[in-house]
Records
---
Amino acid sequence: MLPFSPRRSAFPCLEAHYDLGKVEIDRAVAPHHPWPHAPFYMQAIASAHEELRREHQIDAFFSGNGGDNIFCAIRSASPFVDRFMAQGPRHGLFDTLRDLSDLTGASGATILRHAWDRYRDCSRPVKLHRDTSGLSSAAIAELDVPRPPHPWMEAPEGTPPGKAAHVRLLARAHRSIELYPRRSHPQHVAPLLSQPIVETCLSIPTWQWIEGGRDRAVARAAFKPIVPVQLLRRTSKGGPGGFMQRIFQANAEHAGDLLRTGLLARAGLLDLRTLEGASQPTVAGFEKAQRILALCAAESWVRWWTDVRAS
């Protein structure tokens, strides 16, 4: 690795804030994607990228997308189970128990109980979480129809549960590696998801990723010579959740109209009772608001494709 100092860098650091005025919830966020949902904050990012394209010659956008996924940012008892399956009841196992307790704030007894559940479930098919809120009973029934699973969701027999979860995280990262259509925009490069880095990270035991009670511990250690200690020690980071809440507050009425009169409702796929209580300043209200925005993104995606087919 070449030495790098931001102070000596010849590259300027340009900052941009999410611009609420660039978000339109009835406009498809990423219609080139084969799935009907992409978060609306991506429209604000795309706007900032477009401004850069007007000012500079840009051949590619590089991002850190997929970093949490490949750096095994999981918070469960799985690393404890993985170490037990690999090494048995050795002294290091209790180090992992302590690391998990420091990382999650859970007691040792709670971690051991969850670890036992994970260990018993190793031979059972993976249960994928599905958010069915806002969907009609007919739509939920359609989800229960057997379909071929994603090959990365079915781990080979004997795979430790933490490593299987690590691979499933990579499958989720695929949703963020194609920002824009290739024919009209510069390509998007996610270096952290390149093959050498993926293979290296997957070869590292999951308990090493939480060493010292910090998530992504291996990555923190790797970048220790070049990253400020304040960043290495941080235990949380900002995200787009607050901006998404602002999007909902600015578009709550429009979101309701969009869903009530939309193609999804016309097809009988929505339970419009989900629109009730989304503006309440509670955790439940926040979660419901985010779900409504996800349904609006799906509605806008469907409308875009319907208009394309019609024309």
---
Amino acid sequence: MSIVSRRSLMLQAGGGLGTIALASLLPRDVGSSLASEKSGLNYDESWFSPERARVKRIVWLFMHGGPSHVDLFDPKPDLIRLAGKPLPESFGTVMTRRKVAANPLLPPVKPFVPRGESGIQISEFLPCIAKHADDICLIRSMHGDSVNHPQSVYQLNTGSVLMGRPSVGSWVAYGLGTENENLPAFVVLPDPKGGLKGGPPAWGSGFLPASYQGVTMRSGANPILHLNPPEQFGQDETLVALKLAQRMNRKHLAERAGVDELQARLDAYQLAFRMQATAPELVDFSQESRQTLMEYGVDAKPTSEFGGRCLLARRLLERGVRFVQLYSGDTNGWDAHNDVLKNHTQHCLATDQPIAALMSDLKRRGLWKDTLVIWGGEFGRMPMSESGTGRDHNPWGYSYFLGGGAVKAGCVIGETDEIGLRAVGRPVHVRNLHATILHLLGIDPQALSYFHNGLDERLIGPTDDVEIVNEILA
């Protein structure tokens, strides 16, 4: 067994943290060059069927903190009738008896109204999204396995309540790659206030190579930190430095055959150089019409920040990025423990108009037919009150909606019980949502796998108890 000195280790690592970040920008063709028994990559593309593919791209609007389904998408007359009373014994004890007595049922804090020709009832919290009631498929029976934020964030994003597995976007990038060699396949637009419970592993690549993790971007003139060279370096100087680094790294690689990470680094430098030219144009909203900016609310409070990210998401999608994920909500976000009305008023005002504008814009530009729009958080909220006017976490029954040309429009899938506590009619587990997402992309969720630690790992896990939610499909 050879002993590696600290100096040797640092020498072999090369490049520093910047190259680790750049490795995440690799396109699919770079990833394929890394395929080897050691890395675990298996490019048997029997998992993908172009004939089965209904969508080319996905935008996931993640409402971090847990939006209240019983206040937004799931009206319950019994919750109004029983307001102020304790949870009926017939629903079982999900809390201690003392907490049940201290937390009576809380009615919806805003009225629900039938929308569109479909008559789907949507809360007055979301008047703009409500105009798209006939465009969406509303799932009222989602359920997961954890009552805690980090574990539920991980499950919705990776299929597991445990940290460290690849995210949905990473699996999509691994399976399909990007359609634009100058942009990554998987882009994340986090809330600029930060504080996601669970952190960046929610969009990490887990045991997949780092080239498939989500690349975080921001709206504004500098979408990717540390991408551009110092001001004193022009394009010519940067290219000279890049070529020198490439020659040195290739010499280093020639002396160490089979070091896939170094080959990835070489290709990452090239992609990063191409992105230096692409990124400024990507965030240049001056190309957009005044009407478009107004629709997204880019120039108005409180929609400017989230509206800018929704517009950036559209620009990414139309340029070939496969998977874009936007987060709404900082450390607490939609986590309305104390005051649902105050919390959801704030977050709905910030997101309702931009999301509706994004949906309309996708239609106008011909992208709606093969784009999948996903809205939802890590769980819903309890029908019982907390602190008088708030609600606690509820992973046992909550709402998601999907939109796009591949989705059955103006329909409702599943239901929760009389007070919105548990999914009872056509329950849709998180793993079945994931299986349906992959299916719409033309990917066989049972076949897409990665060999890791002696196992063929999949997004949907080892269980065969997974199904496509066919009622969602158009």
---
Amino acid sequence: MIKSSLTPQSDTITLSIPLNYIGKRVEILLYTDEELHEDTCASTHDSGVARFKGLLKGSEADKYQQYLQKARQEWDRTI
């Protein structure tokens, strides 16, 4: 594993891939230190379902709510 931090001087970053990584799936993350700190602070204060509040918006939330209601009805019928 390789981990490095840098301060970009332009909008382009060039990566040199180690030979033993060639042909393998790799993951590349790009975030600022501030973003990482915000996420860490938020997750320590929220627990359980509360941390997902507001994740889905509008019609997408309605679609999942309908799905959950239908699943609950199916569950109740089988008991």
